[in-house]
Specification:
alpha/beta
Length: 221
Amino acid sequence: MTIFLRSFPNCHPCFVRIESSIQPRLFQRGPLSKVSALYPGSFDPPTNGHLDLIERGARIFEELVVGILRNSEKIPMFSLAERLEMLKTLTAHLKNVRIESFHGLMVEYAKSIHATCVLRGIRAVSDYEYELQMALMNRKLEPTLETVFMMPADKYSYVSSRLVREVAQAGGPVKGLVPEVVEQKLREKLEPAYRFHDEMQKASPGASDSRGTTRKGKKKI
């Protein structure tokens, strides 16, 4: 490397080349060695926000288990088998990710699969308050289990399964909120709602051109 030395009055500045035996070291981001993480959730349905966290988590951890919670107290939109199928399809390209289901205490399931870390996504301050309580309780139940919070990509920071269900049940578009395979499954499951929405769109007074005629060419009344 070359160092510029300060010049003094009546003197010319000079350059000195100093050889260093220190070699530059490249630090590359890679998976944490021998760290298995659990990403739990209901995934009803899986969203682009979920997939974003799964893909990023797969780059950090040596193994990432996506655990779908079986909650008998709630009636899901998609059955457990459907959610398993969708997530397996969406993560087929991630070799260190596997999809499983569980019920009961999450910490017990984490211990059974030898996970030492829990991955959770935080979208807003309200999420953090809830997730902090859960993380502290999990630490109380299992002190060796760590929790890692990850922020979603900006474009998915408002996306949740609940909002997707509400929009889809009203026949609204969910393109960009969920992967294409999930969008297709939603349309198949909620076909009457989408059909009604499409019919309403066609019958809307706004479906006219700038000359005041309908698309069939008839004058508006």
